[in-house]
Amino acid sequence: MSDRSSHCSLDWEWIYTDDVACNDNPEPHGPVSPFASPASSQHIVGARLGTEEVYRGDCVLLRAEASGPPWVAIIRHFMVDDRGQMAADFVWFSNEREIRNTAKKRVDFLPNEIYISLSSDVNPLDAIDGKASVVSFDRFSELYPSKKVPRRSPDVGKLFVCRRGLDMRTTVYTDEFVWEDIYRGVEDLDDLIEYVSKSTKGLHPASSKAAKERPLHDTTGQETPRVLTTPRKRRLSSSSPQRRENEFNEVYVHLEKAISNGSSNCIYISGTPGTGKTATVREVIRHLELAVEADELDDFIFVEINGMKITNPHQAYVILWEALKGDRVSPTQALDLLEREFSHPNPRRVSCVVLMDELDQLVTKNQSVMYNFFNWPSLKHSRLVVLAVANTMDLPERTLSNKISSRLGLTRIAFPGYTHDQLVQIIQSRLESVPSKIVEPDAVQFASRKVAAVSGDARRALDICRRAVELVEADQSPIIRGSAGPHGKSSRRIEHASTTVSISTIKRAINEATSNPTQHQIRCLPLISKLLLLAILDRIRRSRSMETTMADVTDEMTLMLKACSSQWEEEATGALMSLVPDSQVENNYQRGSLTPRSIGLGIAALDLEAAGIVILEEHAPSRPNKIRLAFSESDIRMALRDDHEIHRLGISL
């Protein structure tokens, strides 16, 4: 271990109680490990690699990742880990570089000073890189009066000073002690840990009950504390996750448990757009950060990666590495560094929570990005919690390969669309501070029912109400009407429009919402393109996947046309055939390849891609190629809901 290369071909072997007696080695004091030899009731007291031996209670060095300085720890006991490797439970020392709370950090530390901590975990014996010597401040001053270890001394990197204990979570130190008096061997280890725990005792981690009692605050309304007269001036955008108390508590408990225990986890959060998924996670993070500030929870790093905001999925590596270390490197370098970071034990590692929003946008051809992000939490020392947010409940099974989907689903949290009653409560809660009843209760009910019937999207419901208020305010400008009065004199009277939002106002707002450029573009499409979009919607609804294949869309289109009456089926088929040039029909008939109907569907798909309405794999309408919508399903449904051509064919949405 002083020369690791000389032991590269050797394996660790256990040292039992009889071995210690026969070799006349001093047996460690105190109770021995409960791990016994398979051949007898002997107990493991140490381990040997060549001529080097370590025992319970020894202070040892453990190799760090890359070329960083080694860690210092005390061996509590030996074991065989869950992977069948020879391992040990180590109690860690900390140094000043690990302390993140600079306000409480002591400044009178020595270059080689360490603090005994309460942290411990299991690591393989192969991580041991020799023994360490820990002494008191007085003993170190006797050895090196200059308070520095000379560079050429054999004690460089092996001799350390310990005169205090430290709780890394609260950054609370113990009183100064003499190491030789407080620790003489393994028999003192439990008492030492108990002393540090009592001397640094602070607040206990926040319980799940406390999390449930925390109210959900609206963080965006704080900049305007004055009472507003109209809800237009009051921000109606969804900010706090209202009506999501159960989901909030569930996410909070999982994250708090992982951070407190230093464990890893993968949480898959699904739900349609506008159901409060991302807002709930952000609110949970805000409460956890408050718990950290109150010394109720260990510190953690939060990273948000939005698939819609990065140009390349591999940029996710760069974002994560920069958040962990503050260095910006290339995606290839970041991947290599992250692999090494999460594969090696590191007592300094702080838990990291990664929010992967718009998960479907991070799917690559070989799915390497998602595979890595969901593989890293399974590594023993990663302390990584991944929150994957997507709009589809079974995206892993439908879109991802088995090796990735097997790593998802450890914890699944579903956000169903808001119901009519929930939407009513959300809208009414935003109107509480408005003194005048500017929005009629029937209007709120109407808007809630309309949105709940389509998607349950709270943002859309609030947008409709906001627009309705804007329409009422615009209508409040006086209208001057003239009329003939007595003696031939004309008179004028000033009329004011209604000052409340009624059902008719909500209808106007909905009509405007459905008359945006996107939906107007969809309404102007030819019949075949509309039918193709409906076929894609039906396949998405049945498969619960964000994309489908041209083969499935073609089959769905055929079933859709067969369900129509013969008159309208002939009309739709004729429209489909009209897209195909005669020369192409003749050539395909001669080759016996595609039918005119398949060619027409392919041309319609290409037209939709050119219009930016769908995304077609390889820009070719071949049957195996995938096709997906470029717009939201709700926009397309609302655009085609009242289409007379669709209704004439007997097709309902």
UniProtKB/TrEMBL annotation:
Family per record: Belongs to the ORC1 family.
Record's subcellular location: Nucleus
Keywords: ATP-binding, DNA replication, DNA-binding, Magnesium, Metal-binding, Nucleotide-binding, Nucleus
Subunit structure: ORC is composed of six subunits.
Single GO biological process annotation from the record: mitotic DNA replication checkpoint signaling
Region (Disordered): 204-245
TM segment ranges: none
Entry function: Component of the origin recognition complex (ORC) that binds origins of replication. DNA-binding is ATP-dependent, however specific DNA sequences that define origins of replication have not been identified so far. ORC is required to assemble the pre-replication complex necessary to initiate DNA replication.
Keyword Nucleotide-binding appears in the UniProt entry: yes
Protein name: Origin recognition complex subunit 1
One function term, GO molecular function aspect: ATP hydrolysis activity
InterPro entries: AAA+_ATPase, ATPase_AAA_core, BAH_dom, BAH_sf, Cdc6_ORC1-like_ATPase_lid, ORC1/CDC6, P-loop_NTPase
Cellular-component GO terms for this entry: nuclear origin of replication recognition complex
Organism: Lomentospora prolificans
Domain of life of the organism encoding this protein: Eukaryota
Positions of the BAH domain: 52-177
Major location (coarse): nucleus
